[in-house]
């Protein structure tokens, strides 16, 4: 049976690093970061662009799920609202697939340290911390498993994700 990991969490929590580590742990796995489906300049949030990114993500994930070369699909994106998760799941053919929806969380202090380092390194804009902290409480309302990564390395978090069965 295939397994699909849907990994959400606020900006800066370490979704990409954790999913990359998980991909290395899982043979026959494929990884998609939702941000890759919406990498545009200028970045615009409109009804048209939201529909486009959802279509892009679902096309790729369904292609991965149909492909016999892969046993594991790994997807990460902010995924801060249940309706976003529900929309994606309604458009995916998950027959013969176990879906693990997980929200990565961190304490405000840990998130501040991680995002602060990214801002200083020029990887994020100055408003990233405020936006990320505002999203953090939204994950409590989601129908996902929660994993606090405040004190975990990406490898340790990936190990815990893999163990969720």
Blueprint of the fold:
Elements lengths: L1 E7 L6 H11 L3 E5 L13 H20 L5 E5 L5 H9 L6 E9 L2 H13 L7 H8 L9 E4 L5 H10 L2
Parallel strand pairs: 1-3, 1-4, 2-3, 4-5
Helix pairs in contact: 1-6, 4-5
Would you write up a description of this structure?
The structure is a single chain. The chain is α/β, with parallel strands linked by helices and 165 residues long. It has a single domain (2-163), classed as Rossmann fold (3-Layer(aba) Sandwich), CATH 3.40.50. It contains six helices and five strands. It has helices spanning 15-25, 47-66, 82-90, 108-120, 128-135, 154-163; strands at residues 2-8, 29-33, 72-76, 97-105, 145-148. Strands 2-3-1-4-5 form a five-stranded parallel sheet, with helices on both faces. Helix 1 crosses helix 6 and helix 4 runs antiparallel to helix 5 (128-135). It is globular and about 45 Å long. The two termini are 12 Å apart.
What would a concise description of this structure say?
With 165 residues, the protein is an alpha/beta fold.
CATH topology: Rossmann fold
* SSE sequence, one letter per element: EHEHEHEHHEH
Distance between the termini: 12 Å
Q: How many structural domains can be distinguished in the coordinates?
A: 1
Keywords:
5 strands; 5-stranded parallel sheet; 6 helices; Rossmann fold; single chain; 165 residues; alpha/beta
């Amino acid at each position: 049976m295939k397994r699909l990991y849907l990994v959400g969490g606020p900006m800066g929590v370490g979704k990409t690093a954790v999913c990359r580590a998980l991909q290395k742990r899982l043979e026959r796995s494929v990884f998609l970061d939702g941000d890759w489906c919406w990498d545009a300049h200028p970045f615009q949030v409109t009804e048209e662009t939201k529909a486009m990114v959802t279509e892009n993500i679902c096309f790729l994930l369904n292609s991965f799920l149909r492909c016999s070369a892969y046993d594991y699909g790994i997807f990460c994106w902010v995924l801060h609202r249940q309706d976003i998760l529900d929309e994606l799941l309604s458009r995916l053919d998950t027959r013969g697939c176990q879906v693990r929806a997980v929200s990565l969380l961190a304490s405000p202090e840990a998130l501040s340290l991680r995002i602060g380092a990214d801002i200083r390194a020029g990887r994020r804009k100055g408003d990233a911390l405020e936006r990320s902290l505002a999203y953090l409480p939204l994950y409590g309302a989601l129908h996902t498993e929660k994993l606090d990564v405040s004190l975990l390395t990406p490898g340790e978090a990936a190990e815990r994700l893999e163990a969720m069965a």
